[in-house]
Every structure is written in C-alpha cells, then in structure tokens.
Amino acid sequence: MIQPIKYYPDNSINVNAGPIRSFKENYNNMLTDIIDTMKEHNLDALSAIQIGYTYQLMVIKENEEYCAYANPRIITQNKPFDSTEESIYFKNHAITVKRYEELSIVYDDKNGDMKTKKIDNKEEASTFQRKVDYLFNTTLLDRLNPNQREQAIKALAGKGIMPDKTDDYCPTFSKKEYFVSVTDKLLFFMFISLLLPLFNISKETLDGWYTYDKFAFLSVIILMISFFFYAQYEAKKYKQCTSCQIGNNIGVMLKRIISSIILTIGSYFILG
Amino acid sequence: MARVVIMGGGVSGHTAATFAKKWLGKKHEVVVVTPNSQWNWIPSNIWVGVGEMKKEEVVFPLAPVYKKAKIDYRQALALSIHPEGKADSDTPYITIQYTEEGRVGETEEITYDYLINATGPKLNFDATPGLGNGEGQMGSNTVSVCTADHAEHANHELKEIFEKAKEGKKQKILVGTGHGLCTCQGAAFEYIFNIEHEAKKAGVRDNIDIKWISNESFLGDFGMGGLHMKVGGYVVSSKLFAESLFAERDIPWLIGAHVSKVEEGKAHYELLDGTTGVEEFDFAMLIPPFSGVGLKAYNKNGEDITNTIFAANGFMKVDAKYDAGAYENWKASDWPRTYQNPNHKNIFAVGIAFAPPHLISKPASSVNGTPINPTPPRTGMPAGIIGKAVAHSVCDMIKQGDEAHLHEASMAEMGAACVASAGKGLTTGTAAAMTVYPVVPDFETYPGTGRDTDYTFGEVGLAGHWIKHILHHMFIYKAKLYPGWTLIPE
Ligand SMILES: Cc1cc2nc3c(=O)[nH]c(=O)nc-3n(C[C@H](O)[C@H](O)[C@H](O)COP(=O)(O)OP(=O)(O)OC[C@H]3O[C@@H](n4cnc5c(N)ncnc54)[C@H](O)[C@@H]3O)c2cc1C
Fold first, then answer.
1. Contacts of B234 in chain A (CB under 8 A)
2. Alpha carbon of A39 to those of A68, B97, B170: distances in Å?
3. SS3 at position A117
4. What are the pLDDT digits (tens) for B280-313?
5. In terms of Cα–Cα distance, which of B375, B203, B379 is closest to B289?
C-alpha cells in the first residue's frame, strides 16, 4: 500500500530505527509498502523510516529491480568525495555532503540471511550511505557542520542559498559552546540565589550570594563578549560565515546579557 | 543470626555488602570475600592510563572501610560453592583461598545462609592468541586499562611512545576490542580519545597515527544497539556522533572486527564481510573478552554441578529466560528481575557476574561463521542498582522469611547514565554524557526502536567532563562510606 512520505521539517524521522528481527508477514507488508510508495513517486531509493516505519529496512532500485536491504551496515569505506545529493525528504533541494566512493557492506536479505556486497561507484555509494543514514537518525543536514547547517536550514526556509562545499570535517562541538555552557551555569546559580530568602538562611550566607551575583553578572558580560568574538573567529575559520550566523551569535549573546541584567536587578532588591 | 556472604568487592559487591550491613545491623553477619586489598573506581582507570591521575587516586584500602562498617572482610579468592553442604552437614558453604600477605594460599570453608556472587568478569585475554600470556594474564604485546595496575602500566608504555614521537619517529596506536565477542567498547572509546587529547597536549599528535578497531557493526553501537545523543541542541544518533568525533580527531576506524591473533606489533583481524587483514602498531590497548571467573559448584556428594549453576560462559544463572531461542523471539521479559538462582533460592548473582539471557545488539557472524558482535554491557550504574536491590531482597528474606517479596531491578526497565570522557582538563576536557532508557531495548513497549526516545539522550562538552570528574569523587566518597553515603545514587 502506498504510504505518505515524510517531508522536511517533519522530525518524526529523527529516531534510530530498530533492527528487523523477523522476516515474516509484517516485514513483507512493510517491504511492499516501501516499493509501492517508490513506484508511486518514481523514487530510486527509500528508507522505511521515510514512510514512518521505525525499522532498519531500505530499498534501492537496481536495474529495474527493487532490492531490499535489512539491517544494513557499512563495514569499510574508502575514497572520500564531495557528493551533491537530493532527497525526497528535502523536496529535492541539493545538499553537498562528504561521502565515500568504495563501500563494503553487510545486510540481511529477504530471508534474513546475511549477505555482503562491495560498491565502488559514487552514485550507488552515496545513495546507499544516504539511506543508511536515515535509519540512524541522520539526514543530510546532520552531515553538515553547524555553520553549514544553519545556512542550509535558512535555504530550506527559502531565505538563503545552500552551502555548496563540505568542510574538512564536521565538528560535533564548537568551542564557542564552552562560553555558553559556563554562562548558563552562572545564570542558573544567580536564579537559585533569588530563591534563597524563602528559606531560613543566615544573613552572612545571603550576603555571600549577593557578592556571587555581582561577580557572576560581570563574568556573564565578559564571557558573552568573548563568546561573540570567538564565534566570529570560528565562523571565519570554517569559511561558512553567513549573516544569519552573526545574527544567531548576537541573539545568543543578548539573551544571556539581558537575563543577567534582570537577575542582577532582582538580586539587588531581594538580597542587596 | 544469619550470615550473608558476598563474593567480590567491586562495584556491585561493595554496594550489596555495605547496604546489607546497614540494613541488617549488628544482629546479622555480612562477610565479603574479595582478592584485592584495595577498592578500585574502575571508570577512572582511563585517566590513570594516560597519566592524568595516579593509581592512588582511583583506589583505596578496603580493610579500614569494612572495619568501620563492621563487615567481616576476607582478602581471598572464592573457589567453589557447595550449596547443599557436604556429606556430614547440610549447611551450604564456599571455599576460599587467601591472597592476603602472610596467608597466601591458605584455604578455608565459609558457611552461608545467603550468598551473593559479585565476582565480576574474568579478563579472558587468552581467548585471543597473543592477547594473553597463555596463563590467564595479559600478554606483553598489548596493554589494558581494565585494572588500576594495568592502567599504570599502559601509561608507562604510552609515555615511551610519546617520547619516540617527540624524537620524530612516527608511531602507530591501535585501541579497541581484542576479540569478536568483547563488551566494554565504552572504555576503549574513552581511552582512545584521552590518548588523542594527551598526544595533542604533548605536541606529538602529528607524529602519531591513531586507529580504532572494534567488534561493533556500527560506530556508536556500544553493545546496546546504539543510542541517541543531544549535541549542540540537536538530537543525533550515537553513530553519527561517534563518526563525527572520530573524523574530527582524525582517527580512522575498523568496525565489525574480530581480532583473531596478536603478535608483537601486529593485530590480525577478520571483518564481518569476511575479509581479513593485519593492523600494525607500536602501542595497542585492546579490551579482552569477559567470561565468568571460573567458580566451581559441587553437590553434597562432591559431584561437579557447575553446569547447573553456571552458564557455559562461566556467569551464574539467575531468573532469566535462557531458552528464548532465535533473535526474533527475544523479549525484554527474558532479562532477570530478582537475580536469584533458579535452583538455590539463597544464591544471587549481581553486576557482571550474572549470565545475561542473550545479547542486546543484533547478533552477527562473519560470512566465514565467526561470531562478531558486542556482548551485553553491564556498566557501573546497573551493577550498583542490582547490587542494592539484591541486598534489599536478602535483608527482607532474613527478616520476613524466604517467602519475602524480592526486589526487582530488570535492565529492561532500568535507565542508565554513562559519562564517556574524551579528554581530561579543567577547561579543555570533554565528555559525552549519555542516558539510555531502557538499557535493554523493549520492542513490545517501544515498537521499532525498542527505546523511549524521550528519555534517551546525552550531551557532549566540557560540562560532561566536569560531571565525570565530580562522579569520580562522589563514588569514591560513597564507597568509603563517608557521612551521607547512602544519599548518593548508584
Ligand atoms: C576501563 C573501564 C572503564 C569503565 N568505565 C565505566 C564508566 O565510565 N561507567 C560505567 O558505568 N561503567 C564503566 N565500566 C564498567 C564498570 O567498571 C563495571 O560495570 C563494574 O565494575 C561492574 O561491577 P561488578 O561488581 O560486576 O564487577 P567488578 O567491579 O569488576 O568487581 C568484581 C570483584 O570481584 C572480585 N573477584 C574476582 N574473582 C573473584 C573470586 N573468585 N572470588 C571473590 N572475588 C572475586 C574482583 O577482584 C572484583 O573486586 C568500565 C569498565 C572498565 C574496564
């Protein structure tokens, strides 16, 4: 049966699909649904998760034949290249990500028997990697670094252009987050300090917290200014700086500075 | 007066012993039989292995702690269990062999009313030729961080590699699992990133190639079929997270790998796709596979009944469903709830010592038929929770009789939090804090994924490192039974 396809920004595909454990009726029904949906939309490949089945099953059309890959795993990958890909999930917007040209894969066939396969052409390899990604809660956007991702999200919203190159690597953690993380902790404790008078706490302790609040306020301002300059430096380093990225950084900075001002005023009246 | 004997004073045994004594008070006896004189907070061995902590910081002597708690401590190895007693006595007992200085080799019988097996894993180095020394110990080709002593030795070897790299000699480091049936990928994962972090700090990273080798069929499986993480506000799979982390740190990987043989500077492997190869190294830390510690069991007539009490892998049988059959039939309910031995109601097994009913990750064999899949992890948090639940059950049985309701702690209904360090340093440290619920996927309650994705998340960053460091101090504080220790969760 043809099933409705999920389109961006539907994030219900953001789950790790579970392994296929049985190759009986449910599996066959799911496989039929995937193939029917592919035929209806004239697709060359589809992962189960793209039509709402949270199972590790994908189908690739190879020489007019619909080949099912259950529980696929990429065991080795070689020869990286920049692959510009379209996916029905992103309504065929092209996004450039890093892929590998040579793959050695294992998967379960329709009977649940493990099979191996070698792929050594770019198109087939990138399709395979993209579909496997979907099964592991990974869309094309997730393969971009944070700056490119921001840019791509804007482009998908019709407010910019897609990044057309992958970076050397895809950082999982930007160092600028350190500034944000420390600031958030300082703000959290500033907030907690405002609740202290509700408890039977000595005046000296409250004075201590008032001093903390003053110190924390100053620290937040310094941290956020440092954050902004570091973020600018990082954005340049990744060569993907966009105006939206600057806007985002300003947003992060202002939100926390304003919070710290409000908390400091609160502290002045409550603890001071 | 009842006597509770606990074999093994590691994470789960120490938890069980200390809680049992607290709840039972002076009226009953708690005996701990464990071969080490020191307790080791194993997760921090990673930092000993890169020289960021001294061995003394991750261990402390057990004797004073047990003296304070009024626990009868025997520094000894448990050898055998006699659940029916012997010809002239029905009282069950275990035999032990002292390892304490001055009494080494001395044996003794200790009777029990209740027995808790918390002996953890045997580090089965010899399962891979060349990984062990052929006598059950680690061989000289690789290092390990599984014990504090191993970690100290690993650091020593690592520093030599760094020295050579400083002299401009290119070095190759291989880290991962040393067999197709290993668990504990998380520990190797932490170690490789800590090495990378230290190499950078020492300014030798450019001269060191670092490579990952593991039996996981995808990066980030961690023996649990993967999990979700939160990175920079986005939910990502542990596969993407791990791949990015490896790529970012310029660490290539080999997955789906069974290390079949180790020689000096060489690891031979077979992959799930059937290909074989050799990885050369100057330094390798390969986690060994785990098995039971080799306890024996005998009936009243002295006949060997080890096979009825222990599973083939040497772990103790408990209230799990061991005949679940094929993968498609596995259920969350196969996993044990009370950890009581089915034949002997006064015997329990906790932590790594209990025999799991089956794997957690999808089972897999290479095309040549070699099984290559992670075996189920039983990390510190579940080990502690199970130890405490069993102590509770035993105390209730002592106080209310053998029909008392047993406390339950199924890994299929339990979440686990794990903080994986990726480098130590007050301002430069990184760690991934991951939570997963339930530990064992429950495909009936959560069709498809087997997990509750609302509760399955993690975070990576400096804060994670601080948490890991705080946990180190917190758990050592708790294990030393300092004031308020019961308030610190497992
Ligand atoms: C390097 C490393 C890092 C880790 N990091 C983490 C982490 O970050 N987070 C986490 O949650 N988990 C981590 N783990 C796993 C965690 O250490 C284990 O889950 C936990 O120790 C299991 O507890 P246990 O009591 O079952 O076994 P253990 O803690 O190993 O205790 C077993 C005890 O039994 C004793 N023993 C052995 N044989 C006998 C015998 N014959 N008689 C009597 N006593 C015996 C042993 O000496 C030992 O004291 C890590 C493991 C390793 C190896």
1. 142
2. 14, 71, 54
3. strand
4. 999 999 999 999 999 999 999 999 999 999 999 9
5. B375
Any domain includes B249: no
B279 and B138, same structural domain?
yes
Residues in contact with ligand 1 by the CB-under-6-Å rule are: B 7-13, 33-36, 42-43, 45-46, 77-78, 118-120, 145-146, 184, 187, 293, 295, 351-353, 378-381, 383, 418
Together in a domain, B155 and B265: yes
- CA B42 to centroid of ligand 1, rounded, Å: 7
Of B244, B328, B449, the CB nearest to A18: B449
Mean pLDDT of B338-347: 97
Question: What is the reported pLDDT for A167?
Answer: 56
Atom of ligand 1 nearest to the CA of B191: 1
Asked if B273 lies within 8 A of A181 by C-beta distance, the reply is no
Q: Give SS3 for B14.
A: helix
- Strand B93-98 and strand B72-82: the pairing is antiparallel
Residue located nearest, by CA, to atom 20 of ligand 1: B380
- Domain co-membership, B134 together with B96: no
- How many other CB atoms are there within 10 angstroms of residue A213's CB atom? 25
Q: Does a structural domain hold residue B136?
A: yes
| Structural domain boundaries, residue B71 | 3-121+292-400
Contact B449 A54 (CB under 8 A): yes
Say yes or no to pLDDT of B455 above 70.
no
C-alpha to C-alpha distance for A114 and A69, rounded to whole angstroms: 10
Cα of B118 from ligand 1 centre, angstroms: 9
The pTM (predicted TM-score) of the whole model is 0.85
Domain count, chain B: 2
Contact assignment for A15 to B453 by CB distance below 8 Å: yes
Sign of CA dihedral B127, B128, B130, B131: negative
Verify whether the Cβ–Cβ distance A15 to B228 is below 8 Å: yes
Q: Is the pLDDT of residue A247 over 70?
A: no
Q: What is the pLDDT of residue A242?
A: 35
CATH architecture of A11-158: Alpha-Beta Complex (3.90)
CB B226 within 8 A of CB A19: no
Helices (H) then strands (E): counts for chain B? 10, 24
Q: Do A53 and B448 touch (CB under 8 A)?
A: yes
Q: In this structure, what token pair is assigned to residue B483?
A: 């004031």
Distance B10 CA to ligand 1 centre (A): 6
Q: Predicted ipTM?
A: 0.87
Tell if the CB–CB gap between A116 and B273 is shorter than 8 Å. Answer: yes
Distance B121 CA to ligand 1 centre (A): 7
Q: Which helix (H) or strand (E) holds B341?
A: none
Q: Which two tokens stand for residue B161?
A: 């590699």
Residue A143, H or E segment? none
Q: How would DSSP label each residue in B43-108? A: GGHHHHTTTSS-HHHHEEEHHHHHHHHT-EEEEEEEEEEETT-BTTB---EEEEEE-STTTTT-EE
Residue closest by Cα to atom 38 of ligand 1: B119
Any alpha helices (H) in B214-338, and if so which ranges? 238-248, 306-309
Q: Which of B42, B224, B475 to mutate to test the pocket of ligand 1 (most atoms within 8 A of CB)?
A: B42
Residue A243 pLDDT more than 80?
Answer: no
Side-chain-facing half-sphere of B441: CA atoms under 13 Å: 28
List the residue whose alpha carbon is closest to atom 32 of ligand 1.
B120
Residues 6+ apart with CB under 8 A from A151: A160, A161, A162, A163, A240, A242, A244, A245
In whole numbers, what is the pLDDT of chain B averaged over residues?
93
Tell me, what's the pLDDT at A151? 86
Q: B431 CA to middle of ligand 1, Å?
A: 21
CB neighbours of B366 closer than 8 A, spacing ≥ 6?
B180, B256, B258, B270, B271, B272, B273, B274, B372
Compute the nearest-CA separation of A272 from chain B (Å).
Answer: 30
